[in-house]
Amino acid sequence: MRNVDEINELLRPLARVEPGQPDSHASGAGARALLASIAAQEPGLIPSELGRTRRYVPHRPGRLVLALTAAAVLATGIVVGPSLLGDGPGVAVSYANSAVEIHREDDHYVARIKDPFAEYAKYTEAFHAVGLKVRLRPVPVSSGGVGKILGMIIAVGGSSHPVAEAKPDPAGPRFGGVPLSMGTTPEGCQPGQNSQCIMVMRIPAGFTGDVDVRLGRQAKPGEEYANFDSAMAPGEMFDGVRLRKGRPVDDILAEVRKRDLTAVYSLIRTDEKTGGLSFEPLPADQVGPGWIVWNAWQVKAGVIRLLVTPERLPENPFYNGSAPPPAS
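The chain above was modelled as a monomer; its predicted structure follows.
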């Protein structure tokens, strides 16, 4: 049984996923990561028996033997998972699929987003293959939000329940205390405006968190924006418009026409018990010129939503704690 023992010793550092786990099937992320890492090996030592090694001579097709052995293992249904040759068991140094390409670069994993329109599962597959509990969800945004992290759900204590949606940390590249950062290649290019501009995420190699990240991508024609509440931020649809004190509909419609936009409306309702807000879509012909606009949301390209009440309220409900303040 020496040959079987030799194969077992060869595969021992690579077989990390138990049967029944998500990566256990032969076509899964782990299996593909294994084959990629085996193909990248340089000639070296092959374990022969416990406590001894045997060096193979350079002319022997060592890499081919390893690849064929792994292929045979996968074909017969033996379960293997992501591997990292030279950096510890159970983790791959790189992984790529049609959506994303991830490489270890010094003390970070660098993820290059090749297809921002891919299914979310493709990104999760790739991050999982390199040992990161990151679920990336590119979502449609206005041009100003492309390439930016919009929010993050953080799981703690091994629980799968999200506890918070973080906001960007102005003090540095961390996002809500989590050391994830975004960039582009070539550096400084504008994703969505340049087809050669690729979004890049950097994650420390030692990151052990469990996060769900919402990343802005270019919206397809007609798609609604995930960053709807950024309408009054610099560079967005209503940049420069101020609504803290509320303004009449007629006044705001002048801004709408000036910017070549189409206005739609929602009626603001306040829950008397909780003080929380809800929003009810309204046909334009039911909104009077003297109604008051308290906020504006960008819906999709060319469309702005005005949040209104028929009468003037004592204060703007978006600034009194009833709802998050608009991004202005």
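The first helix runs from residue 2 to 11.
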